[in-house]
Design brief:
alpha/beta; Arginase, Chain A; 8-stranded parallel β-sheet; 8 strands; binds zinc ion; Ureohydrolase_dom_sf; histone deacetylase activity; HDACs
Length: 342
């Protein structure tokens, strides 16, 4: 068995309310897309039911007071910020999303599966140590990483975040931590929530040089992403030599997404995945865990996930041949040169 998809119908019960883009239909569209391509029932795939995370797991990342706040707000059905409402079941389902992420990580680290995709809701990458926001309550990928660091003594984890929004929560949590190399490709912070992720945010103290922010102008698409992956992602992997790849997989950089101005094709999710898997094969026996973040056009979202899963199963996709010159790449190489010669 090669690939695990961690999923529960319970994730459909998370409902931030009428008209909210982070809606249950997102996950229904993904499951239907995978069924349409006979991936849901593929002999190479197992669907694995998650267990909720324990409060102690969440506390590896978040302040206890913040965990209690989410629990209390959820009981009262009060929002934790303007974009991030709660219902009675929000706390419980946020624990299940973090638990599903831990599960996906364990399945890969134990060697039971080569790779895994946690198809979870609510998403996590905007959740900071002591505040949530941007549809996120607990930072699923950070909780997973802290559990895996503890249980499997991991020392080098590469997090690639290709959601169109900057993962400000993930960056904040690991800002001084050199064991987590966080690289984010996102729409320029002056043009999109949450307004962070400038190139000079490279980490602090021992973590300096381990945060790589690639803000892309609205209108950027496959050619720009291909360039950044070839010029920054591949060489930095070779220097960092990860023991695990974790991907914050958001699908809102797609050209049909209603929330952003980026222009990725659906196929791009295939070659982005192939590029990650190629590096993972080189350094860590192909160990990659994907976690669902955003993506708000149902067809683009489902299509993107289908490409990711096809690439996880071994199909190979290639970035565009066409090249371009981005000043941003020179700027990043210069900023990161105190740590890496790329
Ligand atoms: Zn997003």
């Amino acid at each position: 068995m090669k690939t695990a998809l961690v999923y529960s119908d319970k994730y459909l019960e998370h409902n931030p309310g009428m008209g909210h883009p982070e809606r249950p239909e997102r996950l229904k569209a993904i499951v239907n897309g995978l069924k349409r391509f006979s991936l849901w029932s593929s002999p190479e795939i197992r669907i694995v039911e998650p267990r909720p995370a324990e409060r102690d797991d969440i506390a590896l990342v978040h302040d206890p007071d913040y965990i209690s706040l989410v629990e209390k707000m959820s009981a009262l059905e009060r929002p934790i910020d303007g974009d991030t409402p709660t219902k009675k079941n929000t706390f419980e389902l946020a624990l299940l999303a973090a638990g599903g992420s831990i599960k996906a990580g364990e399945l890969v680290m134990s060697g039971e599966f080569k790779n895994a995709f946690a198809l979870v809701r609510p998403p996590g990458h905007h959740a900071c140590r002591n505040h949530g926001g941007g549809f996120c309550y607990f930072n699923n990928i950070a909780v997973m990483i802290e559990r895996l660091k503890r249980d499997f003594r991991l020392k080098r984890i590469f997090v690639l975040d290709f959601d169109a929004h900057h993962g400000n929560g993930t960056q904040e949590i690991f800002y001084a931590d050199p064991s987590v190399l966080y690289m984010s490709l996102h729409q320029h912070p002056l043009t999109l929530y949450p307004g962070t992720g400038f190139p000079d945010e490279i980490g602090e103290d021992k973590g300096r040089g381990f945060k790589v922010n690639v803000p892309l102008e609205p209108g950027s698409g496959d050619i720009e992403y291909g360039e950044v992956m070839r010029e920054i992602f591949v060489p930095i992997c070779e220097k960092f030599r990860p023991e695990l790849f974790a991907v914050s997989a958001g699908f809102d950089a797609h050209f049909d997404d209603p929330l952003t101005g980026l222009r990725l094709s659906t196929e791009a999710y295939g070659w982005l995945t192939t590029m990650v898997i190629t590096q993972a094969e080189k350094f860590c026996e192909g160990k990659v865990v994907f976690l669902l973040e955003g993506g708000y056009d149902l067809e683009a979202l489902a299509g993107g996930v289908v490409y990711v899963v096809r690439a996880m199963l071994g199909e190979r996709f290639h970035p565009p041949e066409e090249r371009t010159r981005l000043k941003l790449i020179d700027e990043l190489k210069m900023l990161l040169s105190e740590k890496w010669s790329l």
